Amino acid sequence: MTDQTIALDPPVGSGGGADAGVADYIALLKPRVMSLVVFTGFAGLYLAPGSLHPVLAFAAILCIAVAAGASGAINMWYDRDIDARMARTRGRPIPAGRIEPGAALGFGVTLAVGSVVVMGLAVNAVAAALLALTIGFYVFVYTMWLKRRTPQNIVIGGAAGAFPPMIGWAAVTGDVSLAGVMLFAIIFVWTPPHFWALSLYRVKDYANAGVPMLPVVAGAAATERHILAYALVLFPVALAPALLGVAGPVYAIGAALLGAAFVVCAIRVQGDSTHREARRMFGFSIVYLFMIFMLLLVDKGLGGVG
Q1: Do 135 and 67 sit in the same domain of this protein?
Q2: 111, 115, 195, 239: least surrounded by Cβ within 10 Å?
Q3: Range of 290's domain?
Q4: pLDDT in tens, 28-74
Q5: Is the Cβ–Cβ distance between 278 and 285 less than 8 Å?
Q6: Residues 139 and 197 placed together within one structural domain of the fold
Q7: Whether 79 and 91 share a structural domain
């Protein structure tokens, strides 16, 4: 992408929101990210011991979804300048001028506060506190502090995306247990190689935007080594539910096979200057996380979770 092309874009937020439609406000919520957040949050709720009234369970999942969307909207408000410089994000509602920054911020803050209040009133204070922590961590720690300052942005900031299964668990139990922490750990370790794979084939985008992702700062070779290291760590972490007796053999076998495939993907990324393997790994990583949590659900359905 050339500077001339960027210059043809409308100034950030110049649309005044006049052309904003329902689809634009939905886009602010980052629905693709939200879908995975909702699924892992539901998994935590389903796997937790005990029961929750279906109406309250629905309210808990809805609050998790709304909070994820609120975080995405606030993130887009804050990152509107770098979004305008990246090919992957230039079409978002704020840099494209369809929604004013202030409207996006107000939308996000309203949803964030509402989701936490409803979670606290309808479910319990622990789940609400975790939900507030998740929003605050994503907005203040990752978006405003880490993202533009350190290549470890996604390592530390990735914790925000790992909280939903803990929130779902706490919605049922009212506490934070070892099993909930294990679910958190799986997503936490999965997040860096997932995003580093993306950043390998989008490195020019991140460099143009001034975001210090690992391949921009340390180069492709170092990033590839980090991806492999995290894939190797993820293998036993994902097996932890079975090793600690929380999940049964169905999950153990499936997690081992998926973990081996994840490591193979990481090995193939090494030294691939075309970054085709990085693109493939990014796609597989999404399937991997979905399947890991689906296996946990199936395992419990078969009586494998204590």
Answers
A1: yes
A2: 239
A3: 177-306
A4: 999 988 899 999 999 999 999 988 999 999 999 999 999 999 999 99
A5: no
A6: no
A7: yes
